[in-house]
């Protein structure tokens, strides 16, 4: 244990001090939450009394906890009963997981509103980790924000936690929380206080997350809400008594007046016949439900001497790295291998390790230290409002669990799965997904995850139908329940009838036959019945994919997403390395076909580790694509230089993403011309832009004279036109590129381009949908750049239609009122329900 040191706390607000015993609330006055001070505030911004990490900030913004590097936890609670204001009157300026400096502004509050609508404005600052302190001010009088008010004796709290006597682990059945605002500070304190009366190690669980049941902050950080299903587990001599007492306490509201929640059976009884989510990987399957429940791991907070705990952590990290290397070496595809490589990089992340080592030095166990540092970092990722980073938090959870199990000596049990399994789970980790036995597992459905998560990418890579964003209710399904997983529709049908099963079988057979036929004709040209030739090219992100695309009949690459070439790299690739990559791709395509290299499209949902950026409130509306590259022109210049080096090897095209203004194109062209001159090139490659911002589509007539081609990025064009986040799991069905507004922008773009003799492609996921083929052709699009596996299917769809008919249907559907109407009209145009299995783009 480290020698005790003093940590000075500053006043978080200006105001009048009041003795804690005077606070009109028995939980605070009785110091059940912790000891500290109370201020009647005259300022209205709560500031950090110490430096550390925000270990919890309540969603309602009325309470926040900071943990210092040495583990001292200080809770600030603004007003009494302010949880009932549900966030009204509070503005959070920091997020959980964020590091803050002493004095930094944390929460702004509207003192007048709170004084009028809550019981009191009295604000508490409490040392909830239990260290003793010396007060530097009296219990009454005036304090100024930032003034030193307490000296806390660091490292003096650990001795109160004797190691539990080993015993059986006991777990309660699920309890639906009756508290109107979940376990906020006061009920959480009552629970933690009651838990401390037992010697057993106690945990409170919500879904995959767990909290030390004796830690008020950990319980608050679970961010529970009314009706949430939680469980208590305990291990030690008095585990059984602890679980019984704490279960009762939870059902009774932990000291709060509550009304009984709906029993679990009632919720289950309301289970509809079809549960809906979002397609993560296309396809369908019939099978029986098997639920994966992650075993809760019991983690002791305090450990042996720091050198012993440090050694335990290092050993676990080495073993985890070896296991990941093995998974990488034996991965069945590149997608899997890349994910395990990214996991290995997380293992070596210096900031994770620094945080864990600091906690071990402060007397914590290796398991506790590692878990705290990975949980805090994952929470920070999730709080940044960036879909991709939030999904990387799932990777961090995965790596975190892997190391934690190794520290605790918990051995992974191989899942014993029956044939025809449809897995259901709150969330699958990328490791679990990559390890699924696809001979037995036919598909899966999860509550968490998004269509762009690594889990979804892996599912697509191994052809497993999958749905994410399912309702929590799904976890109430019994193992063995017969279900039909229709990922194309995002539906899980319970107890399917004979007719649905027959339809599915017929559909599978039809798909199989059609796929074989499409493959057999893949190398033939894509010409409509009336003789219009359409370029069907590929969207790629690597040389391997390019080779695969050319084998499947692509007439070149319509979109090389260059930002994906070096994803996860901490350092920018050298010029030679970039030249080697682009040249290999160019050679694979050859001189007879187009290679369209899109310049780095970093930002938004695609952070690139070696291009650090400030965090943004709205990353999709921030420094993305060409905007970022023009802010850092050296980045663009170096990329141009490397791309130009392969101009002799193929029909080279360069494309700029996210162009909004003509000035951006002019500036980029200037840099390109300078670089081409330095290299002594006689001809410039073709230069085009993506049309993915409505402004660019609306100004297409102004832009067209200055480009060689347009390629429409319907993914972004749709999200910006409809103002719907492209990765939002709840908006996935509405954020549809078939919306007539998007179709009108496409028509406008094509008209402007053709008036100036320029060609137009579509490289968004819409081009990979069979259903969209007659529509896009009818709107006049010249090239479809599609997901690699779908090249044969899209070429075949082109061969099935007449351009003249396509023009008529395109004109008609552009006047309909919704995306759903457009889809329906197109399905009728096909004369039959179109198989939606080609909906997703990898
Ligand atoms: C698009 O926005 O449609 C597109 C092709 O670009 P990305 O999906 O890479 O943003
Ligand atoms: Mg885009």
UniProtKB/TrEMBL annotation:
What processes does the entry annotate via GO biological process terms? phosphoenolpyruvate-dependent sugar phosphotransferase system
Q: Which family does it belong to?
A: Belongs to the PEP-utilizing enzyme family.
Identify the enzyme class. transferase
Q: Where is the HPr domain?
A: 170-257
**Name of the featured protein:** phosphoenolpyruvate--protein phosphotransferase
| Origin organism lineage | Bacteria, Pseudomonadati, Pseudomonadota, Gammaproteobacteria, Pseudomonadales
Q: Which UniProt keywords apply?
A: Coiled coil, Cytoplasm, Kinase, Magnesium, Metal-binding, Phosphotransferase system, Pyruvate, Sugar transport, Transferase, Transport
* Domain PTS EIIA type-1, first and last residues per copy: 25-129
Please name the source species: Pseudomonas koreensis
């Amino acid at each position: 244990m480290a020698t005790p040191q003093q940590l000075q706390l500053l006043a978080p607000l200006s105001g009048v001090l009041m003795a804690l015993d005077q606070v009109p609330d028995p939980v605070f006055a009785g110091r059940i939450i912790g000891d500290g001070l109370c201020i009647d505030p005259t300022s209205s911004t709560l500031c950090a009394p110490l430096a550390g990490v925000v270990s919890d900030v309540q969603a309602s913004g009325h309470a926040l906890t900071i943990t210092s590097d040495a583990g001292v936890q200080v809770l600030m609670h603004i007003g009494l009963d302010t949880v009932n204001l549900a966030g009204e009157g509070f503005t959070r300026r920091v997020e959980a997981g964020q590091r803050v400096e002493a004095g930094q502004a944390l929460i702004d509050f509207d003192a007048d509103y709170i004084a009028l609508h809550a019981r009191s404005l009295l604000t508490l600052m409490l040392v909830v980790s239990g260290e003793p302190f010396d007060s530097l001010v009296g219990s009454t009088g005036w304090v100024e924000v930032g003034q030193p008010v307490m000296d806390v004796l660091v490292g003096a709290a650990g001795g109160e936690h004797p190691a539990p006597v080993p015993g059986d682990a006991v777990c309660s059945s699920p309890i639906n929380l009756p508290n109107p605002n979940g376990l906020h500070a006061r009920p959480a304190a009552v629970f933690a206080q009651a838990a401390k009366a037992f010697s057993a190690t106690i945990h409170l669980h919500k879904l995959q997350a767990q909290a030390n049941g004796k830690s008020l902050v950990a319980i608050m950080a679970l961010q529970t809400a009314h009706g949430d299903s939680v469980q208590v587990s305990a291990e030690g001599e008095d585990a059984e008594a602890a679980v019984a007492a704490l279960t009762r306490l939870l059902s009774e509201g932990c000291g709060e007046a509550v009304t009984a929640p709906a029993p679990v059976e009632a919720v289950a009884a309301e289970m509809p016949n079809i549960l809906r989510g979002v397609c993560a990987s296309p396809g369908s399957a019939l099978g029986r439900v098997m639920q994966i429940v992650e075993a809760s791991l019991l983690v002791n907070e305090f450990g042996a001497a720091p050198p012993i705990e440090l050694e335990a952590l290092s050993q676990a990290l080495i073993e985890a790295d070896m296991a990941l290397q093995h998974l990488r070496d034996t991965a069945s595809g590149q997608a899997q291998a890349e994910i395990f490589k990214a996991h290995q990089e997380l293992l070596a992340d210096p900031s994770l390790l620094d945080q864990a080592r600091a906690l071990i030095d402060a007397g914590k166990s290796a398991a506790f230290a590692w878990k705290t540092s990975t949980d805090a970092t994952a929470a920070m990722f999730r709080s940044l409002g960036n879909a991709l980073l939030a999904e990387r938090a799932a990777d961090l959870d995965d790596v975190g669990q892997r190391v934690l199990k190794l520290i605790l000596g918990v051995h992974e049990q191989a899942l014993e799965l029956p044939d025809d399994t449809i897995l259901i789970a709150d969330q699958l980790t990328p490791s679990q997904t990559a390890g699924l036995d696809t001979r037995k597992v036919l598909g899966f459905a999860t509550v968490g995850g998004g269509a762009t998560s690594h889990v979804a990418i892996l599912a697509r890579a191994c052809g497993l139908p999958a749905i994410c964003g399912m309702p929590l209710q799904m976890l109430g399904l019994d193992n063995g329940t017969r279900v039909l997983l229709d990922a194309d529709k995002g539906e899980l049908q319970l107890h399917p009838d004979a007719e649905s099963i027959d339809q599915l079988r017929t559909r599978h057979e039809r798909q199989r036959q059609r796929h074989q036929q499409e493959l057999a004709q893949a190398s033939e040209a894509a010409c409509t019945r009336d003789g219009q030739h359409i370029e069907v090219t590929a969207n790629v992100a690597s040389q391997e994919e390019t080779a695969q695309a050319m084998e499947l009949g692509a007439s070149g690459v319509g979109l090389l997403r260059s930002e994906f070439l070096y994803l996860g790299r901490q350092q920018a690739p050298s010029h030679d390395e970039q030249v080697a990559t682009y040249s290999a791709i160019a050679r694979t395509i050859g001189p007879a076909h187009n290679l369209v290299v899109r310049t780095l499209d970093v930002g938004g949902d695609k952070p690139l580790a070696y291009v650090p950026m400030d965090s943004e409130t709205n990353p999709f509306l921030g420094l993305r694509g060409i905007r970022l590259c023009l802010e850092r022109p050296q980045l663009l210049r170096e990329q141009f230089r490397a791309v130009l080096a392969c101009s002799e090897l193929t029909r080279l095209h360069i494309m700029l993403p996210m162009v909004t203004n003509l000035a951006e194109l002019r500036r980029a062209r200037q840099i390109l011309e300078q670089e081409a001159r330095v290299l002594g090139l006689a001809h410039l490659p073709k230069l085009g832009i993506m049309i993915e911002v409505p402004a660019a589509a609306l100004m297409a007539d102004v832009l067209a004279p200055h480009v060689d081609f347009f390629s429409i990025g319907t993914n972004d064009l749709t999200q910006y036109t409809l103002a719907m986040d492209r990765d939002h799991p709840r908006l996935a069905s509405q954020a549809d590129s078939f919306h007539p507004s998007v179709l009108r922008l496409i028509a406008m773009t094509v008209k402007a381009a053709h008036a100036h003799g320029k060609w137009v492609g579509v490289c968004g996921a819409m081009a990979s949908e069979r259903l969209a083929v007659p529509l896009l052709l009818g709107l006049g699009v010249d090239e479809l750049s599609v997901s690699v596996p779908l090249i044969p299917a899209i070429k075949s769809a082109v061969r099935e239609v007449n351009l003249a008919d396509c023009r008529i249907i395109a004109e008609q559907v552009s006047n309909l009122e919704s995306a759903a109407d457009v889809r329906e009209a197109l399905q009728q145009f096909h004369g039959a329900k179109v198989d939606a299995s080609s909906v997703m783009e990898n």
